[in-house]
């Protein structure tokens, strides 16, 4: 076959693989890509009850799935709040509430994905050939309120049919309409899914294809398929793809409740025996993709490579909604045909896995059929679903799975699926290629085959997608690109203990401040490479979070106060202190453990983060594959089990000599190499039994490859011969050695194999005689422990191992040791001649281990600080027993089998640093502090998936909910019932009211001017209005008078809510009065206007309507911060124009002085003198209009027309790019400005269109004014 014909037979993706170079993520409990991945690794459950910001459980929840108009689902995955700056994306604040949150969050995710790909503001790319194709479904949570607002004809008919007057009907209808965000010019595009992509291309100036595709729950992978086609066919050079779904509205819940598909439990557990349904989630995930050759050419970081994608439809089936295995099988086979390799080569499949019994069974059936073809292996492929952690994110589900799998390949980690207690027995998974991966584990490759993974996504209507990924192997070595954090070390110091205590106290206070997160990162960075003079006092610890750091620092401060003169102490929580460091030069000993220290998953967490350990196991896996043996890594990191029988079987397998010794060796080597990166350099090395081989390697006697070969050969040689019954056994005995030796003398085939400690030895010999002496010594009161070994090591009974191990030694090259290596047999350093070294090492198999004398001799030569490098702390404890009360230090780097091994490693290094060793932190990658400040001001809003609503609209809604005059309504309801309801509001929720202002569901808003905190709106009170409204609609035709009275009484209970709302406007009035003082002429006019504010009028009206509510005494609201806060309300008004009236009854005049008096004691400010009333204000002449006044007026008009606070506006801002002000809005702004300054020259729309910034407009106006003045002159 010619090269040309061979190339023509390749599929499109084989010819043009696609690289994933950037990603962003926003899912439940994850604000960004890093948090998303860390949550996956940490097995964080993001499922929570429905928050009030989504909808009210009291209104819609009923555990009965058959309850009409109710949902039995109340759990799901909900987005956290993130910062959103409208100015950054050129969106006027007044337009935000017309846009679905997917539009706003989509911009943030697009920016983060491009930045993650390396394309931030400082790096350009070809925008002309960059496109955006996303997956998304209908934005129903935006459509629903707009549609609901249009139901007023029906409301009108019901009200009229119920006997209400035209006036009453109109008032009710207007109030009900006011409860929804009004229609505006942005409403239509704001509800369209496709505009999410269009908005991104608009803002980032991208010229490629942009669209949004809908394939239901497979939308994200459908978008990926189209984006790949754009690249392969050459229409684009880079694509932004992925999916979004921000709709966990009540409509969404109702849809899945009536299907029905929801689980009745509080967790989602796909493929589990108890799975009973799914849970919905919100999320956005985006990926930046390129042709692989282009990504390599441009030097992009490549997360993974897309090798195949298969699509299919289910065809005709019993139901369009029911999943069909045949359709999924088609998609799977097409994907691997395109990839060009067998699915059996995969190590991970990220399933659709929704948790519905029928769906999971259908999917597993399809997977098993395809992956079992020509594949006899069982349980070698991990199966999981991220939905167990974040819920089913519908249109974004494929993106969530694809990002998870891409990061798994990039980090070489098999992520866990949570909430699984037992696999569904219907699957018979033990007879399939799959296993459910419930633990986060290192991902070792299958021989020479690169790591590969598959991702599935299926949608309503029988649409099936499967994507095949492969790890990227860089052509050139790359640094660590890990995005998750390892445990972080904190090291603090002072000239003396008191100064150290003060330093710790100050650090604690800073960590507990609003800047705590930034301070935490700064402390970590300064601790990484800090080299302390020996004379300073120091304290150190390791934390995995800010909260833990605060807790540990509190304990450190307390201990420093208790023991100010102590030389050293160690806190049980892992805090290490010394008054001064120790000079340890020439005194450091590295110890390596032997067989018996191994345990399942030893060093698992270190292996997730340290490539040195993964490399060691990979080398041994390759060696064993050549010998026809199972991978060593599969024994050390076995597949998760669900019963004790399987776990015991795995433990027994690892204890076998041929597995235990190379497993310990690989871990010890990886740990030692990791420690070396911190700067660790021992002065002596020694090992126990098998560990002596590792000690020789550490001293430079063997190369890495020779060492791996020898530890594999030694384990094989010392294992019991095949087919032979193990005859040897070993027994640990605690007691006086001299007395134990007397008992051993009477046993012909038993001898002391290990002299471990002054009162501990290990006996080795024939199994029958070991059993006999065990009974004898136990009866004499000795503590005896049989060891889990398969032979009588260090006796003549393992002579069968001597010859094969000797042959293995002949195959390697010995080098002169670079450090003193103390031998087990002689307790002295190894000889320098290579022949003598070989003979001594071979003799070690048959001779006893003189460990006590070894340690004594090392100590005599200056060894002082003993560091155990390997699993557990067996040797550390032996050293402590041997040296007793003599001054020494003994530290294990992996002391516990139960605790996080990576935390333990960092703690061990911290102990050494506190002692005085000049080491760096194991986490050498510096953490970056994201500086939120920019060169220009910003308006920071807190957004999640709930649509944004402005404070101005909230005020309108609040006004619509105020009660009408009691004279208009006939009271006829049960007064006892109404009174109890009012007491509920007045009682337990009083405190909540004072701490927050109510918001109206479903449009909560959390705006935060600049970066300051503001009161959070409490939805629990106003949300009851939904219940009242529903009741009114259902009962109005039966008895109108009781209904209206109930509504009236409910409105009374809201009076004090409004009163508190008025109080929170005080800061706004304060700022206005300050502004008025600075501009007397304008101030006079505005004070007249403010003398009858609508909101104050309403407050006055409450007093007349209901004395009980209005007379409730309120404690002072939360005190204002010492520094004035940027204002959010009311919106600044154009000069010399009256504020727009609220849709409420005609206000009555209220003098402003009481408001001023109310403000004064709550926020100290400069005294404000009230100007004398002026009946008329003359228009300013052209001469009197100064640049500053003109500029300020322009800023105020722009603020009023766009919603941007004046304090964040700058004259140099671009009208369109920065502020989103189009040509129509410019004309409106100029019209308002000319109303304020009638002498301004009129500008044509064409002239305005040429002005790019606010400063340009001011300059142009001034020039025109100067021309006019000259003409007049």
TrEMBL record:
What the entry lists under SUPFAM superfamilies is as follows:
ACP-like, FabD/lysophospholipase-like, Probable ACP-binding domain of malonyl-CoA ACP transacylase, Thiolase-like
SMART domains linked to this entry: PKS_AT, PKS_KS
Which one Pfam family would you cite for this protein?
A: KAsynt_C_assoc
The ranges of region (Disordered) come to: 1094-1151
InterPro entries this protein is in? Ac_transferase_dom_sf (IPR001227), ACP-like_sf (IPR036736), Acyl_transferase_dom (IPR014043), Acyl_Trfase/lysoPLipase (IPR016035), Ketoacyl_synth_AS (IPR018201), Ketoacyl_synth_C (IPR014031), Ketoacyl_synth_N (IPR014030), Malonyl_transacylase_ACP-bd (IPR016036)
Specify the Ketosynthase family 3 (KS3) domain's residue ranges.
Answer: 15-471
GO-annotated biological processes? fatty acid biosynthetic process
- The domain of life for this entry's organism is Bacteria
Q: Print the keywords alphabetically.
A: Acyltransferase, Phosphopantetheine, Phosphoprotein, Transferase
**Which GO terms fall under molecular function for this chain's record?**
3-oxoacyl-[acyl-carrier-protein] synthase activity
| Ranges for domain Carrier | 1188-1265
Coiled coil located at which positions? Answer: none
User: What name is this protein filed under?
Assistant: Acyltransferase domain-containing protein
